[in-house]
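Deviations from the work plan: none for this task. Representative record:
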Amino acid sequence: MIDKVFESAVAALRDVKDGATVMVGGFGTAGQPTELVDALIAHGARDLTIVNNNAGNGEVGLAALIKARRVKKIICSFPRQTDSYHFDAAYRAGGIELELVPQGNLACRIEAAGAGLGAIYSPTGFGTRLAEGKETRRIDGRDYVLEFPIHADFALIKAERGDRWGNLTYRKAARNFGPIMARAARCTVAQVAAVVALGALDPEIIVTPGIFVHRVVVARNS
Amino acid sequence: MKPLTRNQLAARIAHDIPEGAYVNLGIGAPTLIANFLPKDREIFLHSENGILGMGPAPPAGQEDWDLINAGKQPVTLLTGGAYFHHGDSFAMMRGGHLDICVLGAFQVSASGDLANWHTGEPDAIPAVGGAMDLAAGARQVFVMMDHMTKQGEAKIVERCTYPLTAARCVDRIYTDLAVLDVTERGLVVREMVEGLSFAELQRKTAAPLVQGQSQALP
């Protein structure tokens, strides 16, 4: 019997290695898998490359991971926020590398990884400093920048409900990066508010099919 | 001569958004436009974090932090609205499905280059978000900004000195003094606030202006 449900977040992340690339879902705090990130902090892996839209808010989740000096590099679109002080301090001290990516390029590079594409041509960023040094091409009169996929060892995402096969539904705008990150990682771990019986999720409303999800954890506070 | 207030400017832009338009209002001042959209038009507001049919802020105490806008403030969903993931959301933006986006700007050039994401200061922590995707992808890009900086420098310039968000993307500029179209023949003045002469507007603008059939603003 296939059962992807793990008893705890810590158990679901026990094999994250130092130097791993870890995608973390969420846009700001909406959809941020806080319990999984807490487990990643407890696990102790270092020199991580983190992929997220932001660079942490306040004291929780990703901000706490950065504060604990576990992040070597962050790939994101919008690090600077009013409450991103842990990232700001680490960045100014030279303690964290930043790869700044326009949000849509971040999304489509993650999608490219999940879809098995070698690269994509995106119009976003052409002629700007974020495309400096990158290969470009004019196609049908429009200019594009060659962008490469972002693969990950782990994706940590937050969903609403899941079942033992890993099928997921999401809640409102907390969906954001979850479905695309789930496809781009070798091991996707989803924290859910509730695990329901197989068949309880209407197949018409499953957003992420279980093939993209390897481990499911119930987060009591989700 | 009285410059428009932020709200007057937002109301002026709202007037130009037609029935049925799919619209993204950028973070900051452009979000004010939502307050002035004509009630008799159905207009679809898009938020890049994954919402179409975005409604106003909820009453105090009814915030749902899974339902926020691109500025990470709580919002609501209108009847008929939908949620979707980032791949879909940026396909809407990059794929030319949005009719209009309204963005703030540090500078706009005579040819419609937009600079709105980075001041270029060496110690600034850069952040870009969805600005480049909107500028590159929306069918029409409107800019909403003050005509000059607080220090009295022109924001409409021959060439942007700040790092670009996208080249040749702006279609129309709405400022507290005027409405200008970016055209093949240059920046055409469509509207000016009452009591402002074309010559005076030109003096406040660091790129040549073309006098259109000017109307009073608003």
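Helices of chain B lie at 6-15, 86-94, 131-137, 198-203.
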